[in-house]
Amino acid sequence: MSNYLKDKVIIVTGAASGFGKLIATKAAAQGAKVACADINETGLDETVSEIVSGDSQAISHAVDVTSIDHMRTLAARVIDAFGRIDVMINNAGVMPLAFYSDHEAAIEKWHRCIDINIKGVLNGIVATFDQMMSQGHGHVINISSIYSNYPVAGGGVYQATKSAVNYLSESLRVEARGKIKVTVVRPTAVTSTGLMAGIVNPAAAVGIVGHNASEFMEFSQRRMGGTLREEELDPESGEYSSLEPSFIAEAVIHAINQPEGVVIGDVTVRATGDYLIL
CA spacing 20 to 30 A to 63: which of 46, 54, 76, 215? Predict the structure, then answer.
């Protein structure tokens, strides 16, 4: 199979940890030139050091995605360093799940969620749009969520932001037809990323498991206790229930690794045996 990642210039936001770090390291390993961006400078430096130690090319840039000035500066630096921008991956995001009755504890985090998840994606698009259009090619990959599929209790604000990501993406695809490819990635719940740390009320996760709530709670207790069965941990098994984030990152890499005339528009990856209903 052809390697379409080789020598591509790729920006990844949220590259200090989680999906972003995995995507950045996997892309670099296949020969891409990666610009790693994050507000977490320590984690960002660790990601870039890991990439460079493997004889791949990467630069780091501390950025707050909610600032259009920061994002424009990031894009300008990448152009100075590599001459173009082939792929923009808007991955940075937060997930402050909470019920509306939790508003006293959640309101500031909800506002920050709107800023990062919506404005951050918009800023990433705007900061790279002119360059991609003038090049005559480009690819924007926006990380959404299965939470954007249908509204449920406990996810209102987060779901609204991820639904907005879907609309921003599709409108970009329509406007930039033939010049900018657009991919929406909707990760299922992956417990081993930092995203879970932003949850305000753990009970608000009930919406994503619905009628499977009791089974999911029992599964979660066994997972925390280290007593999951081999089949539940084995991706070769149909009972695989706890998806590793590397599978999401591989889906992003697969979307990039296509010829110019082919775009994978919408990607969802699940564990076959997971308990999620969205």
Answer: 54
**Which residues is 181 bridged to in the sheet?**
139
147, 150, 158, 240: the catalytic one is 158
Cα 144 from chain centroid (whole Å): 7
Residue from 275, 216, 205, 246 nearest 19 by CA: 246
- 100 is an active site residue: no
- Condensed to tens digits (0 to 9), the pLDDT of residues 210-239 reads 999 999 999 989 988 999 999 999 999 999
- Residues in a beta bridge with 9: 33
Pairing mode, if any, of strands 266-269 and 87-90? unpaired
The mean pLDDT value for 175-189 works out to 95
Given a cut of 80, whether residue 1 has pLDDT beyond it is: no
